[in-house]
Amino acid sequence: MGSLIVSLLMLQLQTFKPVVLALLTAPLGIIGVTVALLIFNIPFGFVARLGMISLSGMIMRNSVILLDQISQDMATGASRRDAIIESTVRRFRPIMLTAAAILAMIPLTRNIFWGSMAVVIMGGLLVATLLTLFYLPALYAICFKVERDLK
Length: 151
Description:
Number of helices: 8
Order of helices and strands: HHHHHHHH
Radius of gyration: 17 Å
Helix content: over 70%
Shape: elongated
């Protein structure tokens, strides 16, 4: 299963470093998942694990959107630093629309069966969305050794 995900990411991003960056963002949801499960006092069962799988897909989708926009901006002639900043600003809205799934999960939190999955997705997506918008551009800049502009 992991090799299929890596293969699909390689097809989409076409270079190895962005694929690694996309894969490094997937575990970011664990922070929010842990906090949400503790707040709601819900055990990490089978359905919660299914929520983690879908959450990983959502997080990697957000990172692919951002990484692809950076490469498109650089292809048009923008510097790597400007491409990182402009792409993050430009892709803020689509990434936040994915986070709107948090609101869709609210009614499911009271469900006996699907409640743990909803809590996992809500908590993980909330934290991972914020970290994708701040952590991923910073990690990209570090990975590609982008110089800081000191003015």
